[in-house]
Amino acid sequence: MCKGLAALPHTCLERAKEIKSKLGILLQKPDSAIDLIIPYPEKPEKPAKVQKPSPEEAWQWHNSLEKLLQNPYGLASFRNFLQSEFSEENIEFWIACEDYKRIKFPAQMAQKAKKIYEEYIQSEAPKEVNIDHFTKSVTMKNLVEPSVSTFDLAQKRIFTLMEKDSLPRYVRSNIYQELIK
Question: Assign residue 146 a region: left if phi > 0, alpha if psi is -120 to 50, beta otherwise?
């Protein structure tokens, strides 16, 4: 039936080799030449100086993860809650994706994409998020030519997971209950 790679048109083989090469470069070890040429400086996290929300404002979060994440105090509170449960990888991935979308330079985008992949997506990653095989596959294909939307599908899956699983636990927590008093 299939005669192997030789049966494919020459242009397909060339394109496959090109994709393999680009993906190989992107997935190199951290001490690769690209890291020496384009270092990605780590920004120290500054503690957010945000105002505590009113109980009414906090109450809006119980049904809206989006509103919760848009509020700096809500985001910090939700993150602290997840850390207390040892399940902060999802929110950290979501935040990393939001930071990634703000990158303007392609070289920095490629470097950050590589870092996100290594930290959250690849098998056995230090903070591996729970995404299905299809989502992981789409994300890996997107890494060949990183763009603002490289992690969109994975980020949406994690958002949905947090919305259905983490948010209900958060609104039952003492952390949240104190905010709405």
Answer: beta
Q: Which residue is it, tokens 């959250």? A: 120
Q: Which residue has the tokens 């490289």?
A: 150
Q: Where are the alpha helices (DSSP H) in 27-151?
A: 33-37, 55-59, 65-70, 72-84, 89-101, 106-116, 133-142
Tens-digit pLDDT profile for residues 46-76: 444 678 999 999 999 999 999 999 999 999 9
Question: Cα 133 vs. chain centroid, distance in angstroms?
Answer: 16
Q: Which two tokens stand for residue 12?
A: 């397909």
Burial of 23 (0-12, 13-18, 19+ CB in 10 A): middle
d(CA 58, CA 114): 36
pLDDT digits (tens, 9 = 90+) for 72-98: 999 999 999 999 999 999 999 999 999
Distance CA 19, CA 6 (A): 18
